[in-house]
Structure formats: C-alpha cells, structure tokens
Queue: 2 jobs
Job 1
Amino acid sequence: LQNRTIVRFIARTMPRAPSSVAPGSPEPPAGRPVPKGRQTKAAIVDAALNLASQMGLEGLSIGALAELTQMSKSGVFAHFGSREELQISVIRAYHQRFEEEVFFPALQAARGLPRLRALFANWMQRVAVEIQSGCIFISGAAEFDDRPGPVRDALVGSVKSWLAALDKAVTQAKQEGDLRADADARQMAFEIHGLILALHYEERFLHNPGSLHRAEAGFEHVLERYGNPDAVASTVPSDVRPRARVSTPSRPSRSKE
Amino acid sequence: LQNRTIVRFIARTMPRAPSSVAPGSPEPPAGRPVPKGRQTKAAIVDAALNLASQMGLEGLSIGALAELTQMSKSGVFAHFGSREELQISVIRAYHQRFEEEVFFPALQAARGLPRLRALFANWMQRVAVEIQSGCIFISGAAEFDDRPGPVRDALVGSVKSWLAALDKAVTQAKQEGDLRADADARQMAFEIHGLILALHYEERFLHNPGSLHRAEAGFEHVLERYGNPDAVASTVPSDVRPRARVSTPSRPSRSKE
C-alpha cells in the first residue's frame, strides 16, 4: 500500500518518458538528436533513482517503474537485462549526480582548505535534500552490507571513489600547508564521514532539530584539530561562528552516583 | 535463497525452543518456574532478534521463525497478535540487551569522564560484534526512516533513550569538572554518535581495515576538544596512544590544480 502511495507521489512530481529527457542527463549536442531509446532508458533510470531513494534499491520493481513512466512492463524490462542491471544503472546514475553536485563544483575552489570546505559544503547540501528523499549510499549500505554480488560491488566502488576524492582533498590541503604536517588524511576523512552519517541519522530518522548546525560545527571542530589556525580562520564561512573557548573550570571532588 | 541460507546458519548456532530460555531473558526466581508459554515466547523473540540483525526488521517472517524454532507457523503466530507486534518485541529485546551490555556495566565506573569512557568502550564492543551480525538500530533506521507507525515509534524511542543516557553522562562529566564548562552535551554526543556510525559503515559495508582504531582515535580527539586536559590524560586507556602534536609548518604559496 505504502509502496503504491509513494509511486503515485513520485509520478505526480516527475516528467514523463519517453517525451522528456531525465533532468540529470547530459545535453544533446546541437543538431544531433539523442536516439529515442537512449532517452527512454535515461528517463527510466531517473524514475528508478527517485524510487530507490525512497524505497531502497531493493524496493525497485519493474511494475512500479512501468507505472511511473507510463510504459508497459515488457517495455521497461527491454532496457535492462535483469533487475540487478537496473539496480547497477541506478547506482551509476546516482554516482554521476553526486559528482555533478558535490565533486565537480568544488574543483572551482582553490586547492587546499578552500576546496575541502567546498566539498563538505556541497556534500551537506546534498544530504540536506536527502533528509527528505533518502540516500542510496546509506540505505543501500544497510541493504547490501552482507550480500555479496555485483550490486554491492557497484555501490562499494562508488562510495570508495568518493571517499578517495575526499582523502585526496585532505592530502592536498596538507601539501598547501593548510593542515598540520602530521594530519592523518584517512582519519580526518573518517571523522568527517561520521558527521555526515550522524546528520542523516539524527535528522531523517530521529527528527532531531539542529542536526544540520551540529554537523557544521563538528566540521569546524575537525578543522580546529587538524588545521593550520591561520588557514582555518581565513577560510571560515561567515555563517559559521566558532564558539569562544573559556577557561577550564576547577574540578570539584568526584562523586559516584 | 539467501534468506534460507541465513535461516539455516542461525538455526545451527542457536539453542532450540521451547526447551531453552533465551540468553537475554531474566533469571527465573528460585523455586518459581517460568511458565512454559513465556519461555517459548522469549525463545522466539531471541530467534527473531538474530534473524532481524541479519535480514533487517522487514526480513522477519513467521515462516522463517517457525523453521528456526522448529515450531509450527500457527504456534509462532499465537504468541504475537501481528507481525508488527513481533517487530516491536524484537526492538524491546534488542533494547534490553543493549542496556545490559553497554549501559548498566558503565554505571560501575565513577561518574564523569570514567563513566563516559566506559559507555563508549562498551558501545564500541557492541558495534564490533555487530560488524559481523548487523545492528537493528542502524538497519532499522534505513528501513523505517520514512514509514510512520508503531514500529518506527518503538525504534526511535529506543535510540532516543540511549542517546539521552549519553547526553546525561556528558552533562555529569561537565558537573564533575572533567569537561569544559562550555561543552555542549548534545553537540558532543552527536560527534560521538558519528564515530560509531562511521565505524559501522566503513568496517561492515566498505570492509575498510583500521576503522575500529579510527573510531577510538576520534573519541580521544573529541575529548581533547571538550575535556579538561588533566581529566582526559588521567583517564586515557593504556592502549590508546594520542599522537604528539607537531608545530604548524610554514605555508607554501597556494596553487590551483
């Protein structure tokens, strides 16, 4: 029942196939139309991505996609050899969208701390959307964590390539002198990843207000630990106000409750 | 197919109902035997908890439980009015096990930083087990994050009561003077929660080696930020070696790649 409600909700808010190209698809070169079959496939993948964000990759069904795209089940199935291939296409589409929204725009920022800040800010923006819609990097991890196979491999590969990009940005920030020479890139990326996961969990699942601000404050704390203070201070966004440090209080005697 | 493989695996490794009491069940008072019906129900819940850890709460089925406990389907069903009630019983059982393994033993440690450290150490131990078995607090969040109803409510209530206990331990550590007076309990608990989530994600899903050590190091970093240095240093476990701080390097000119 709930599955069908979501399918209808998504159907009301998305463009129809095959007359429209999916929003994430590349623009066709001028004067050279994209073949109709490829347009249709892109539209199905886009619908599948919307559905998977809400229902999980395991929630994907040919029937629901046929309803969403107003195609026949056999018409949908003809574009994918198997449900597994459909799931992998969705992971690739998500990966591409993630790169376009989070990774590529951050390359415009100067190498070092500005770029690392941009990566985190773009990631936060992506998660803020996914607090409503769900995230297949997170729900997919829970679905496939102990299920070996090509879907799991595609998902792990996608997440790992993103975390490797984050590691690289940290390493570059070290090379630029923005971070301390002993900063451990993998450790720092791990702590940042934790903030994103806590944000998604506490805001989307627990509905704890203030999680967005907590993730931002947590990121500043990570930078305070690993950063060159001048670089951190000179790149702090205007909407993040680090709290003033106060002196450590004297310790009262320890009691046991 | 995979579902049945897991059911058989769990069946081989667990005690049989109704002759045995589930490991998490309270000891019967001496001389007053526990009614057989209650024993059976406890054994079913225990089998269901094992199954749900691996398959998710949505992976629970009366059929699989009947196979696991070697009972009839109607026999299993008689103990629960609905599948939803079975799921809620599993959440309650998990909550009880979590309290017994993580929360109650930490109350033996002195109030303040020693207790906060004990809570984290016990939590880490629980997660280390769940890297193999799965965790219904995490997989359940992905399953029920946008599905209102009594199962979601039970799961959210359970997680929130645990996070509230963590907040309280932080607040007590502040009162004891172990943490800085301006330490924000909710912020600190959020950052700790992130480390646990990153550990589960990176170790269980990505199979990244070293995640356990990274979560431990991250916890020390959180304490470095919020703690009274004397209290942090005097309570550091012998197996955690904080890295020496080195001087900040001079910054080379910024290049753009």
Job 2
Amino acid sequence: MPRPEMIRWSEDGAAVELLDPRSLPETPSQLRLESAAEVAQLLRARGVVGQGLREVAAALGFAVELARHRQLAQTAFRHKLEEGYEVLRQTQPGDPGLFRTLERLRRTATRLRGEAPAAVADAVRGEASAVLEEAGAAGRRLGEHGLELLGRRATVLVHGRGWELTDALAPLFAAHDAGRRIRVFVTEGRPTLTGSRVSAWELQRGGVPVAVVTDAAAGLLMAQRRVELVLLGARHVALNGDVAAPIGAYTLAVLAAHHGIPAYAAAPAAAVDPQYATGAALPLGTCEPKQVRRGFGRATAPDSVPVFPPALDVTAAGMLAGLITDRGLFRPPRDAAPAALAGAEPPGRE
Amino acid sequence: MPRPEMIRWSEDGAAVELLDPRSLPETPSQLRLESAAEVAQLLRARGVVGQGLREVAAALGFAVELARHRQLAQTAFRHKLEEGYEVLRQTQPGDPGLFRTLERLRRTATRLRGEAPAAVADAVRGEASAVLEEAGAAGRRLGEHGLELLGRRATVLVHGRGWELTDALAPLFAAHDAGRRIRVFVTEGRPTLTGSRVSAWELQRGGVPVAVVTDAAAGLLMAQRRVELVLLGARHVALNGDVAAPIGAYTLAVLAAHHGIPAYAAAPAAAVDPQYATGAALPLGTCEPKQVRRGFGRATAPDSVPVFPPALDVTAAGMLAGLITDRGLFRPPRDAAPAALAGAEPPGRE
C-alpha cells in the first residue's frame, strides 16, 4: 500500500486538501483550504503542520490564491499576488525554506510579467505542482537511501518526524513496498504525541505492522533485543552532522549506544543549516506547557507547575551511525560530514 | 510543610478517608469509605492505589468494618469479621504484604476471643492505627536514610512511586523539612502519568520546588547538567539488589550512567522479595493499553494499534549507586546486597 497522502489538490482544483493532523487518529479529516489566508491561518497554528509539509502547503496555497484572482486586471492581480506572498511569508518570517519556496513561485510569475493574469496563475499552479511532486520524490529517494540499512526482515524503532514528506518514515514505507518484512515500534512522542497520533496512524494506514511504545519504555524494548535499528526524524542538521530532533531523540541515541544498536537520523538535505558548524547552538524551540499540563483535555499536571520546555534535543554526530538524506546516506567516518549538503535547496530544487 | 496526608481516619472515626488519586491534580478530593466492601472496591480498581497505601487502606477498612458490627452478638460478629477479612484479602489474593497486614489484625481479634465484640473492634482499631503510624514512620525513616545523599543544595530527578508512603519522594520531603534547598524534576511517568498527576501535586502541596519533565526529555536534562541525583521508586527488589520499577526507570538508569550521575532506587525493606535471586524473573506487570490509546478521553493512538505493554522494567543493581530503604542505605560494594532484608515484614512490623 502506498503512503497516505498528507496534502494534495482538491478534485475541482480550486483548493488545497490537507489531512488535518489534529483530527488524527480519531476522525481523519481533510481540510479544504481555498485561499492563501486560510493556508496561512493553518500554518500559524503552532506545531500543527511540520517543516516539509509547511513549504508545500504554502506553495499550493499561493497558487490557489492566484487562481481566485485570474479574472482581475493586471494591476489588481499583481497586488493580490504580493498580498498572498506576504500573508504566507509572514507565517514564519525567519524560515529560509519557506522563503525559497515562495520566491520560486514569485519568480515564475515575474518571468511572465505582461502575460494575462490567467496565464500567470496557470504557470504558478504548474510550479506549485512541481514543488508537491518534488517533495514526494525527495521522500521516496530518502526512503531508497535508507533501504540499504534494512535486511529482508527488520524491526525498527522510529521517533520523531522532523520533516513531513521527507522524514524517518520514508525508509519504512520503502522497505514495505519492496516486500521486506519489517515491523515498527513508534514512540508516543510526548508532549505532542505526534508518534502515536500521526505516525502510528500513517504506518497502519499504509499497511506497515506497527506498535506504539511509550517514550520511557524504549530502554526495556532495547534491553529485550526487540529492535535492530533506531530511526530518528531530525529537524535541523549542523555542518558536522549533529542533529536537532523532537525531544527524546537524544535519550534514544544514548540507549541505542548502550545496547549496541545502530541509530540513524533522517532528514532532507535542505535541513543541513550552514549557520551551524556544530549542534551546540542548534535551536531547541519550546513546547507549549499546556501540552504537558492538559494535553489530553483533562489536567495531567497541576496548572501552576513549571514544565521543562524544550521541543527538540541535540544528538552529536558521534552518537549516530549515520544520516539518511534524500541525497544519500552519510556514514562517518566513511563518508564526509553532511557539510557537503550545506545550502542545499529544499527537496526537489536540484 | 509536612507531606500531604494520603490516608487517615475520618474525624468521626467511622470511616477511612483516602485522597482519591483519580481526582488529582484537578480537583483533589477525599474518598470516604465506610465499610470493608467499599475499601475492597477501591483496591480492586486496578492501579488506583499503590502498594504501600493498599496495605494501610486494607487495615483501616478492616477496622471500620468491625466497628460497624460492634453491637452484634459474638457469633454474628465473628462471621462479619471473617467476611471482612475475605473481601479485603480477595482484592489481591497473591500479595504477601496484604496477607500479613490482614493476618496481623485478625490475630489481634483472635487473642481477644471471648471478649465483647465492642472491645475486639476497639483493639483492632488500635492495631490498624499502629499500621498507619508505622507506615508513616517507615516513610520518614526512608527519608532520613536518603538525606545523607543530598547536600545543602541539590537538584534531583525523581521517577516512579513504587510504594506510596515509603517511596522515592520521602528523601525529598525529609530534605525540605531539614531546610535543605532542593529542587525537583519529576517525570510524567507515562502511561499512568502518576508523576505529573500525583507526585508533582504532592511535592508542590508540600512546598517542595518542582517542575515536570516529559519522560523522553530526561536525556537533555542530564546532558545540560541540570540534575545531580536520580531517584527511582521501586516496586520489587531481588535478593541481589536488582529492582523492578515503573517503566522508564531503566531508561533513566542508563542515561544516568552515561552522564556519570548517581541513580538510587528507593523502596521499603518489605519490597525485597526472597522469591527472586536476581531481577531476571521479576514480574513486569502490564499497563492497560487504553491508558496509552486514550488515557484521557481523547484518542491519542489508533484504537486498533498494538501497545508494548509492560508496566515495570528491571534495572540491574550494578547500574545503581545504591538502594534506599527504611532500614538503611545499601551501597554496593561497601554494603551487603539487600538480601539481608529478605523476608522483612512490611514497614513498621519490626
């Protein structure tokens, strides 16, 4: 079974359809987003849509916005184009990936300056479709590169997404599609529960045998030799190969090292950030204390109790067996540090 | 501030008052239990009341039951006594601690055979009060023994209760009462969330500075050198000092060893079980998959997804810096293995 689609064009082509992660796993439902403003609103809902998906959603949202205005006169259309660009850009002004994706679409429009708005809208839509397809292809490439780590049978513990579409689940779907007999344990991923809510649903929906394990149970799982490989979905990669990944990844890397189990990080080449020579300064972000204190609706901690806030933790390259990217598998010391990938365009920009 | 009372006699003396752990932290409320049957019903609600508290609750419940029947004639009274004994015993037929506690009260009644039922009921009540007081005293002793591990200032990560009343929180309350400046991080303790729901509430209520940390974040906490000592509340102790503790304890022990931070287990001497020479066969129990899939009403994992079920994990004595009990601190190799404590009576039975 193929991997479930997280994002796509609506059948009538007038909207972006996005699987609402907040609806998982209980009542999986598609959001229908019909304007840049609607997409932007979703992107601003903190933590709802992850890194890779965010860029694709912005691209599709921008194209949908231009299509809405295809009947306008040139000047009015250009005005709407700039407005749509800004509203999407402002959802995360400091994000280079989002900036590059939106710039790519705007350049397409700029090249057609003078053409009828309808033609410009169609061209931008074509470019947005390319962004969508390329992200899917990058995910499949990451999956293929990860495949060589898995035998005909394998039991894998996976933690964190980092990037959606090009993430740590990709090698699992690739292995499943290749007929390998794999079994997957997925960590809950407190406090967001992305593992049990989203990844477990996605793997199950895709036909991959999966069980959920609480984050704290990973030690016992390894002590009982129930996993052969650990996959960590990374958010940021430093030039030396250190990674920042959803909190708990470092704990799993220490456990894996203690038990002699190889742990690999997975991230697209675009996650290698030339700003960071090592992991020491990689941003750890913050989770919402509410996710810890009443993440399930009911209070699960006193409302006034402080919460240790980081959303990510850092794992040194030396703790990892390697890094799986859409541009290849990096295994130190055999391979160069992922610095070779620094400044890579987002997936699909090759 | 003293430690909050988890269990006590009601003011009118006719009932057991027990802080309902299910009500924490949102609306702390006392359960008023007026018969052996009511206490038994609570004890049968799986996982609601922990080991140490269970024995004390059974003792108080037995005494309350006899008081209800103090006006009966001898034969009818003896019949009620046996009935009450059985209903409480059957809540956990294989538990030696519960058996010993109930036997202790029944022996008190047997010694007074021939006396008026009212006199027997009063004597059993006195013995139950002794059980309650001794459990509190054992907790305080465990606290005192743990105190020597803490400096004038200390930052401690605590995980798991294992036993209530004589548990890993005791050294923290002892240190706080002794005027030490301690700060505590408490793990959430998925899937039961006993750490964030109960321990965090209890520490905060007792005036101990506390913050909650998700289980998976413990690695980062240690990498950032934010904790100096790890305390693990153990449920069972093997003769060689291996411990079974709420799941995640082993993960924390591995992390602590990796970071050179001492990790101690805490449990009453009564937790040393002579059935088990080492930790290899210690029972791991099972959690309820529902606590993982929809612990708080909302679904947090697909309903059909399998869940890795152990409720406890085992940490080898060699991974621990020592074991804190109500009968002393055991630090191998300086001290003998806790086998010396094997077969110890429940706390307070000295």
